Amino acid sequence: MTESSETAQTAETAQTALRESPLAAEHAELGASFTDFGGWRMPLKYGSELAEHEAVRTAAGLFDLSHMGEVRVVGDDAAQFLNTAMVGDFSRVRVGKAKYSLLCAADGGVIDDLIGYRIEESEYLIVPNAANRAAVVEALEQRAADFDVEIWDESEGIALLAVQGPRAEELISSAVRMDETAIVENLAYYAVDTVTVGGDQVLLARTGYTGEDGFEIFLPVDRAGALWRALRTRGEDVGLLPCGLACRDSLRLEAGMPLYGHELGRDRTSFEAGLPVVSFSKEEDFVGRAALQQAKEAGLGKTSGQRLVGLKGLGRRAGRSGQAVQLPESEDAAADDDAGPRRVGEVTSGMPSPTLGHPIAMAYVDVECTEAGTRLEIDVRGKPQPVEVVEMPFYSKVR
């Protein structure tokens, strides 16, 4: 599942009360540390963020994602409408499948990255990032004027839990009705189905934002607490831990998954981000098509401009968001002794990798510096740290 740049507190949210998850009492009882995440008061960690990270990589982790949005698109024109509103081809998504896509502005900039699930032939569930939910709903409503569709923002009534990790299937299979275990075991990646948990029908998707196998569960907010407790109890035998946003960020970074507001935003296109999600073959004239076509023809992200790359730290200190990426002075033939190293990009996300044992980062750098093996530096508070361009993801689960 995709996230927004919800880690940065805005002036607006600073002046208003943070929204609470329906599981706020559960988190408080577990002694969670909280943070502002897109206007929501969400758990950052419960104990050791490294232990939570390791649990997801080796066993299972339980996440509260109830801050995410849920927007239902229903009607005879649903597929055609989404093809006009977003860059992907939703008419080709079969019932019971999901698609990652982008909602773009007319200039090609990204309003949000999101997942769309095709629930029925004429019904989709769109899941935007929490901080972008209002902007997504507004854009969809504006773009729906000429289509036979209804758009319902159901976010207030839906909670979202995730179980991620190599033992996630085992745990979820034990929680559903015995005659539904085959549904869980046979559910493909980026697929969705309905199962029964604790007597309640829930929507179960095999999606996630950690680089591990896992599931996301959509259910009514008044049933979230019971399911959270039941999963924690069942998960004791498989090593499950409740997990917060801190380890979610380190997990998604290792998996090379973009975060809105860091790797994605209104000032970047899918070509710079290296996301092959734009369907120019579909018939619909989707919003942003002309600008994106022009960017593609100009070679943006390939022969011009910048592209998102992975950086492996060769030293001990990790680069952080906003820090400069530069050429090593010894390799910069055009360097001016008085000017210092030449800046070629900027870090978007970075931290020490708990799994790999060395620093990693994502950064936008000039296209001529994007070949794997290229040596660069990150300016970490005035001290250059050596890095090497590498292919992403940094970590990939062997299935």
How would you portray this structure in words?
The two termini are 19 Å apart. The relative contact order is 0.15. The longest helix has 12 residues, at 224-235. The chain is globular and about 70 Å long. Helix 3 (49-58) packs across helix 9 and helix 6 packs across helix 8 (224-235). Among the domains are: 11-68 and 157-254, 2-Layer Sandwich (Gyrase A, domain 2); 71-153 and 269-299, 2-Layer Sandwich (Alpha-Beta Plaits), CATH 3.30.70.1400. Strands 11-12-13-10-4-14 form a 6-stranded mixed β-sheet. The protein is built from 11 helices and 20 strands. With 399 residues, the protein is an alpha+beta fold. Residues 1-17 have a biased composition (Low complexity). The glycine cleavage system catalyzes the degradation of glycine. Its EC number is 2.1.2.10. Residues 308-395 form the Aminomethyltransferase C-terminal domain. It is an enzyme of class 2 (transferase).
Low-pLDDT residue spans: 1-15
The residue-averaged pLDDT reads 94
Largest sheet: 6 strands, mixed
| Shape by Cα distribution | globular
What is the alpha-carbon Rg in Å? 21 Å
Give the helix tally. Answer: 11
Strand elements, count:
20
Classified by CATH, the class of one domain is Alpha Beta
CATH third-tier fold name of one domain: Gyrase A, domain 2
Instruction: Output the structural class.
Output: alpha+beta
CATH superfamily (homologous) name of one domain: Probable tRNA modification gtpase trme, domain 1
Task: Based on the coordinates given, report the CATH architecture of one domain.
Answer: 2-Layer Sandwich
Distance between the termini: 19 Å
Strand content: 25-35%
What is the helix content? 10-25%
Q: Order the strands across the largest sheet as they lie in space.
A: 11-12-13-10-4-14
